[in-house]
């Protein structure tokens, strides 16, 4: 590895300062992808790249934090959990290169939010329409389980991304993303009820900002992990229904057209 530069975020305070200083999504991605603030995650993402499964041997892994991906002016954000060790940690793009991504991008294509049904590499030509994909944790964690401290350290990247995108709808994949996003929104001045709304597939909560007339609707969806999709806990029809509901919410917000300009 190259010698660590002084501007590389290497502590929670560094992450907070770097995220706050990012004036746009390009700057945010540039800062995020250099982050080394969580030693366990840095070690794991690099070890995964150094010893990949046989099917990926010879490929050059991204092996860095993964920034959000999609339309910079998206009115819909999809919030997952973290990159997969041999998915986004390999390709450098959220949900790209693994079975979870296959399931998600096929659904986005079916409802008119993606230009194609597959996402295999960062340069495969995929574009997203009025939607952005992101996660509360930007490095692949061992056993897909970041620690509470790692979640807190990584939080400012998601917070700043939400500020810059200013979505109207958030489709949240799983309970971890749901709680992480509610924490971020409460810190940003959104009126999050107490007790917090519970995560459930199909859950819908509309929040209002305490200082602005903004509204943000959260839609809960089971995570697109193989554990859910292979067992039938989450089916294509169930995911499609949540994404179509996101479009309906947009249509109801001041007559906004749905993503991609498609009819509902």
Can you give a write-up of this model?
The chain has a six-stranded mixed beta sheet, with helices on both faces. It has helices at 12-21, 25-32, 39-50, 88-91, 99-110, 148-165, 175-187, 226-229, 236-252, and strands at residues 69-70, 76-79, 131-134, 169-173, 204-208, 215-221. It is built from nine helices and six strands, in the order H-H-H-E-E-H-H-E-H-E-H-E-E-H-H. The chain is globular, with a radius of gyration of 18 Å. This is Type-5 uracil-DNA glycosylase. Keywords: 4Fe-4S, DNA damage, DNA repair, Hydrolase, Iron, Iron-sulfur, Metal-binding. Pfam families: UDG. Residues 67-243 form the Uracil-DNA glycosylase-like domain.
Question: What would the keywords be for this entry?
Answer:
264 residues; alpha/beta; Uracil-DNA Glycosylase, subunit E; six-stranded mixed β-sheet; globular
Strand order, sheet with most strands:
1-3-2-4-6-5
The N- and C-terminal alpha carbons lie at a distance of: 49 Å
Chain-averaged pLDDT: 93
- CATH top level label: Alpha Beta
Cα shape: globular
Tell me the CATH architecture.
3-Layer(aba) Sandwich
- Identify low-pLDDT runs: none
Helix count, per DSSP? Answer: 9
Number of spatially distinct domains: 1
- Level of helix content? 25-40%
- Quaternary status: single chain
Binned strand content: 5-15%
Query: How big is the Rg?
Result: 18 Å
Largest sheet: 6 strands, mixed
Task: Provide the CATH topology.
Answer: Uracil-DNA Glycosylase, subunit E
CATH homologous superfamily designation: Uracil-DNA glycosylase-like domain
Counted beta strands: 6
Task: Please identify the structural class as seen in this structure.
Answer: alpha/beta
Keywords: 4Fe-4S, DNA damage, DNA repair, Hydrolase, Iron, Iron-sulfur, Metal-binding
Pfam families: UDG
Family: Belongs to the uracil-DNA glycosylase (UDG) superfamily. Type 5 (UDGb) family.
InterPro entries: UDG_Type-4/5 (IPR051536), UdgB-like (IPR044147), Uracil-DNA_glycosylase-like (IPR005122), Uracil-DNA_glycosylase-like_sf (IPR036895)
């Amino acid at each position: 590895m190259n010698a660590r530069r002084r501007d590389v975020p290497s502590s929670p305070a560094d992450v907070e300062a770097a995220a706050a200083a990012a004036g746009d999504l390009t700057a945010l991605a540039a800062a995020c992808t250099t982050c080394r603030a969580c030693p366990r995650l840095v070690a794991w993402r690099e070890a995964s790249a150094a010893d990949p499964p046989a099917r990926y041997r010879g490929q050059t892994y991204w092996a860095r934090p993964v920034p959000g991906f999609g339309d910079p002016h998206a009115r819909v954000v999809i919030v997952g959990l973290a990159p997969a060790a041999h998915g986004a940690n390999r390709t450098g793009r959220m949900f790209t290169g693994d079975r979870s991504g296959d399931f998600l991008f096929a659904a986005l294509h079916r409802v008119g939010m993606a230009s194609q049904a597959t996402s295999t590499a960062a340069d495969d030509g995929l574009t997203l329409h009025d939607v952005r994909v992101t996660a509360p944790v930007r490095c692949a964690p061992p056993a897909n389980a970041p620690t509470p401290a790692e979640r807190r350290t990584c939080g400012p990247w998601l917070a700043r991304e939400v500020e810059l995108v200013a979505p109207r709808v958030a489709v949240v994949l799983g309970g971890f993303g749901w709680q992480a996003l509610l924490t971020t929104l409460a810190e940003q001045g959104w009126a999050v009820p107490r007790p917090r709304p519970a995560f459930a597939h199909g859950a819908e909560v509309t929040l209002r900002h305490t200082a602005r007339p903004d509204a943000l609707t959260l839609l809960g969806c089971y995570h697109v992990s193989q554990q859910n999709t292979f067992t039938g806990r989450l089916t294509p029809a169930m995911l499609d229904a949540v994404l179509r509901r996101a479009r309906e919410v947009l249509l109801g917000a001041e007559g906004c057209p749905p993503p991609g300009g498609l009819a509902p």
